[in-house]
Known about the structure:
7 helices, single chain, two-stranded antiparallel sheet, alpha+beta
Amino acid sequence: xxxxxxxxxxxxxxxxxxxxxxxxxxxxxxxxxxxxxxxxxxxxxxxxxxxxxxxxxxxxxxxxxxxxxxxxxxxxxxxxxxxxxxxxxxxxxxxxxxxxxxxxxxxxxxxxxxxxxxxxxxxxxxxxxxxxxxxxxxxxxxxxxxxxxxxxxxxxxxxxxxxxxxxxxxxxxxxxxxxxxxxxxxxxxxxxxxxxxxxxxxxxxxxxxxxxxxxxxxx
Length: 219
């Protein structure tokens, strides 16, 4: 966020005072501005999603961003590859969490009354059906883990198309393995034990039991 303000505007005979805000312009260049675009570009170019070094850099930056968001008492509630903006390349590549349209202070269940809002496939169970569990940092960690699976594989961790599907899949103990995806890079595919460790970490981070998930994205 760069700046905010208001401007006086007249619509027909009605004077209006309209708020405005200025945000940073992120130029992604040929590889794409959003994380999902960059993963798609990598898939087209090489046949694989992010390599281990690039994936680690992306995951680390997103985790740092989430920790900062949570430190000021805010839950993003829609952490998806489409809501992570990217610029630069190689070692200078930067990943920035964006689109705080449905972000809210800790403890608030929904944006509008009891309406569940978010992206199916990245919705934690407590968010998809507004269960008794409070939405909190653990909700973003669930979505973050799902995004990590995507940047490593080019595929969605959960294939839900609606809120009900999202809830049922998230409550299930079954989780996809990166080894079963086509976009996993060769470097990781040749290290099945490492991949299984990543699978286990993602399964914990997307546990239906919020107490089982890591306490912060950076853990």
